[in-house]
């Protein structure tokens, strides 16, 4: 007996998702190798600290906490690229505990990032 195919067939989104994820990962690796200046580094980290401060402030109320949950924001944790983290540790004069892959993203505590930024600013200035 011959089976009839349905009039419409489900389009496979898995392939498109995997391909776009692979291309974005390659683009991220390419951008990670671009050197950044001290000023660009300090501006980028300062912007991340401002956003993290807003997240912490917003988390004090019920609706702010709910809003953070919808946006998948982590309170007190900042995402930073491996390139930025490696450069910041070099400027602060600290040795990393483990080898830092510049193509990866790392999560760092808010207080630790503030301390690293202050040390780096003191050494640079």
From TrEMBL:
Q: Which domain of life is it from?
A: Bacteria
- Kindly provide the name given to this protein in its UniProt entry: Uncharacterized protein
- Organism, per UniProt? Zooshikella harenae
